[in-house]
Write a structure and sequence with these properties.
The chain is mainly α. The protein has two domains: 57 residues; 138 residues. The longest helix is centred in the first third of the chain and has 56 residues.
Length: 199
Amino acid sequence: MMKIKKKIKKIDKKMIIRASAISAMMGVYVYLGTVFVLQYSIKDIYEQFAYEQSMQTGIDPILKKKMDVMVAGHPIEKMTRFIAKEDPQVAAFLVGIAKKESNWGKYSPKLNGKDCYNYWGFRQQRERMGSGGHTCFDSPKEAVEVVGKRIAALIEKEQINSPRDMLVWKCGYSCADHDPSSVDKWVHDVSLYYQSIYH
């Protein structure tokens, strides 16, 4: 009888250990499943929120967030909410060209010591012209709208699909008088930021 009781106790202990192990494993599976569902739900909620916000304001919040992180600490930071309203390819050129031409506004034209908000080397004759014969804008919003409109027109007219196609911005309609290495460097540098936004 004693031997039987000992065997029963051993079996009970094994069963308890197995039951505990199974319970622990189930707990892990439930936890991981909850985390997965929660993450999936949060992603869905964020994407839905982003879509609704873009419909209401015209701002692409995902694009804006990407730009905010990229240009943090640079003067162009105050323009991201306007750039995020532009077509994605136009936005990519606005970011890429501004980085190359002015380091996102750190080296840009001034008028009477004040920022002209021209971070793209843009030249169009106006009443207010800044240093270097560059156009002076009244606000960040106006700058993005005017330069963005010009970029959009070039994309359509010249069938532009890449920064190399956009060399018209640097050279005009011929780069023959430009140092080939500087031309290649312009394409390379603009491409880095263009591709991070548009692709």
